Amino acid sequence: MTSLLVAGGTGERNGDWGRFARAVFLRGAMTTIDASSAIDGDLPSGFRPIAALRAQAQPVAPTLGPRRVAASVARTDVLPTVAAVAPRIEPGLERRRTWERRYAQALRVSDALTVVLITVGVSLVDSLSTAGGMTDLWTAERLPLLSGALWLLMLALFRTRRISIVGSGSTEYVRVAHATLSAFGIVAIAFVVFQWHGARTQLILALPIGLLALLINRWSWRRWLTHKRSVGLFTSRAIVTGSRDDIEYVIRQLERDGKLGYVVVGTATDDTLDADMSVDGKVYPRVGSTHTVAATARRLSADTIIVASRPDDDPEFIKHLSWQLEGTAAELILSSRLVDVAGPRISLRPIDGLPLIHVKIPEFEGGQHVLKRALDVVVATIALIPIALVTPVISLLIALDSRGPVFFRQVRIGRDGREFTMLKFRTMRTTAESELAALSAQNEGSGPLFKLKRDPRITRVGAVFRKFSLDELPQFWNVLRGDMSVVGPRPPLPTEVRAYDGTVFRRLYIKPGITGLWQISGRSDLSWEESVRLDLRYVENWSVMTDLMIMWRTAKVMVAPRGAY
């Protein structure tokens, strides 16, 4: 809120500078009025508009000291009774900041406990396992305590507890990983330079164990926060303003990702209609207009304003709105129709007061793809060891259930349109391909996909394998060969690719994956359009940390499957 503070009375004219200063700055001698009231002339009795005061007041040279200013004021007929006072925090904003501070403090305490337990525990185990045993406690724990302090410092410097990154997305995990690697990088340098005893143990054991423990700790807190937000706690009360079409688009995106923590309490449209808005069957009341959204936010204790679109005739609308929201809202969010562009590809670069949004163009070769391939080889190699152990059991179950081969081989389309043979454990009868034409009329899939919830071709054992995605385990061999990636778009059939249009072909820019966004978002329950959207989003915005998050969520989906048939 932009406020004007006007002092009443004329008693300061003959007083000294001290009495005038006290009259100006003591809150009891002043009244706060809204700037819009002052502009419209709707002032309380005894007050004069600021414009009139400025017109009557005589200018004072900027070089005058306090005493000369006071003397000059005493000689003029109009007192300088206008003072600017910083806006005060509204109760709604204070409530939000309170829970943000508490959540950040909880993260800080849990991080500290995790770091101390890992560094000190690893050091104790190392000391007890040596031939001489533990000699002096301070000597044994000096390095781990220093390592822990450095670790916590890096977590703070990398701003891993910033409230805008917690709760959703991979940024929080990326920052935790970067802070951890930076801390232990310094420890490694110190080990080389000073040859500290115990530094090698910290690097070999505390680094991987500690990083994993921190990530699990943050994931646990995120689950707790998501649960609290699902019942209306730890949320931000938001008002969306702009045109009705843009408001509808923003609300639909917010409702799609309920983990962001925004609860839309109303809309402020740029028209004069009083009609409420309905988005996907849910009604959102119209609580004001674009020009009164700041006052509406104060009235409803909304701490977030989302600007879906701004008036075309007011280029300074955002600046003035941010002034009016001072003390009322914590966030002023500008919506953009950059659809499915992930955060790491977007950066803001102000140039001489002009904020420019930079969108990084996707790249499909280079160092990141080499790193992705290295991750694929490591994960596939590790995964194939237990798969080799359970394959005889799975093979026996398949053979007892129906006659035919254990493995099912099918031609799929990989990167750049190249064909490859994909391996799966057989889950259907051997005559499944020839029976497809007779079942095409019962297709429940969308687009070029064929899906049946109760496909008669699936065997009894195959139904169990499909439910828990066990039939896809041999695809790790395809990953090791280089045909596929662990995470990527769904591998399409040649018949599907022939039905693609110009945009869907972008799915073939990278290798298909065993799992992906489609796998953890509903699989067969997704529409064709939604499946394509998720695949294209991954193709353009993937990262190593995103791959690790998808792998983790895939493991959870396998335990509690949804949309698998």
TrEMBL record:
The chain crosses the membrane at residues 106-125, 137-158, 179-197, 203-221, 377-400. It is a multi-pass membrane protein. Keywords: Membrane, Transferase, Transmembrane, Transmembrane helix. It is found in: Membrane. Residues 372-559 form the Bacterial sugar transferase domain. It holds the Pfam family CoA_binding_3. One of its GO terms (molecular function) is transferase activity. Belongs to the bacterial sugar transferase family. NCBIfam families: EPS_sugtrans. This is Sugar transferase. It comes from Microbacterium deminutum.
